[in-house]
């Protein structure tokens, strides 16, 4: 049982890659999410290292970014991976992409990327790994039908890794283990409680003050 938080980003990346391999071996879902919510985190280097590790296993994979600017920056920083990096819109326009059994790694889709991202997901049967995605949208004018469709889409994603500092503690998930709540004491983070699924903010609050 993982009863400690990763001591640094390198350890967290090792854990998430192992969780990804475990999830792929167990074939738990074709829609997998990973969330690392560390303050000041630069997600680009993390994603490039993940893509390289996947390629080292001789598995084809492509990295998708929501916008052209982030795509260009990724290609600039990793020219050796440029052929495996593209934007959401480029992916949707390019009908000649040979996906084979490629993993699709989607970088940080936000509520305003939802329409394009949903279209990507519906047009392929490939496994998709969503990193630091945030698809829920509380916009009042979205409409009940569209909101229900979005809610249904979000519910299909299976989280395999979550690392997030929160008030008075941290939330941690490392597939195939339970979700874990850590309490922040004077001498650091201590394991506090297990959950069989992601706890709500109210459940976290009640746990700390029960």
Summarize the structure in words.
Helices cover 38% and strands 25% of the residues. It is of the alpha/beta class and 210 residues long. The protein has one domain (9-209): Rossmann fold (3-Layer(aba) Sandwich), CATH 3.40.50. A nine-stranded mixed sheet has the order 3-2-4-5-1-6-7-8-9, with helices on both faces. It starts with 8 loop residues before the first helix and ends with a helix. The relative contact order is 0.17.
Under the CATH scheme, the architecture is 3-Layer(aba) Sandwich
Total number of domains: 1
Note the overall shape. Answer: globular
Instruction: Determine the CATH superfamily.
Output: P-loop containing nucleotide triphosphate hydrolases
- Helical content band: 25-40%
| Main sheet specs | 9 strands, mixed
Report the end-to-end length measured between terminal Cα atoms: 24 Å
Q: Uncertain regions: pLDDT < 50 for 5+ in a row?
A: none
Please tell me how large the radius of gyration is. 18 Å
Strands, count: 9
Q: Could you name the CATH class?
A: Alpha Beta
Which structural class matches the secondary elements?
Answer: alpha/beta
The total of helices stands at 7
- Order of neighbouring strands in the sheet with most strands: 3-2-4-5-1-6-7-8-9
- Stated plainly, the CATH topology is called Rossmann fold
How much of the sequence lies in strands comes to: 25-35%
H-E order: HEHEHEHEHEHEEEEH
Mean pLDDT: 92
């Amino acid at each position: 049982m993982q009863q400690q938080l990763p001591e640094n980003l390198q350890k967290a990346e090792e854990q998430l890659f192992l969780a990804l391999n475990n999830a792929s071996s167990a074939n738990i879902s074709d829609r997998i999410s990973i969330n690392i919510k560390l303050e000041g985190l630069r997600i680009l280097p993390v994603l490039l290292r993940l893509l390289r590790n996947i390629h080292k296993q001789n598995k084809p994979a492509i990295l998708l970014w929501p916008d052209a600017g982030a795509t260009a920056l990724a290609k600039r920083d990793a020219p050796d991976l440029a052929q495996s990096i593209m934007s959401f819109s480029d992916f949707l326009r390019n009908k000649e992409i040979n996906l084979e059994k490629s993993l699709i790694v989607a970088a940080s889709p936000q509520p305003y990327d939802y329409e394009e991202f949903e279209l990507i997901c519906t047009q392929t049967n490939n496994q998709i790994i969503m990193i630091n995605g945030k698809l829920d949208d509380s916009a009042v004018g979205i409409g009940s039908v569209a909101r229900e469709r979005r809610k249904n889409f979000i519910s299909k994603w299976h989280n395999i890794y979550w690392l997030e500092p929160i008030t008075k503690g941290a939330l941690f998930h490392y597939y195939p283990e339970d979700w874990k709540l850590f309490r922040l004491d004077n001498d650091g983070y201590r394991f506090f409680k297990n959950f069989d699924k992601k706890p709500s903010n109210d459940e976290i609050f009640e746990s700390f003050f029960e």
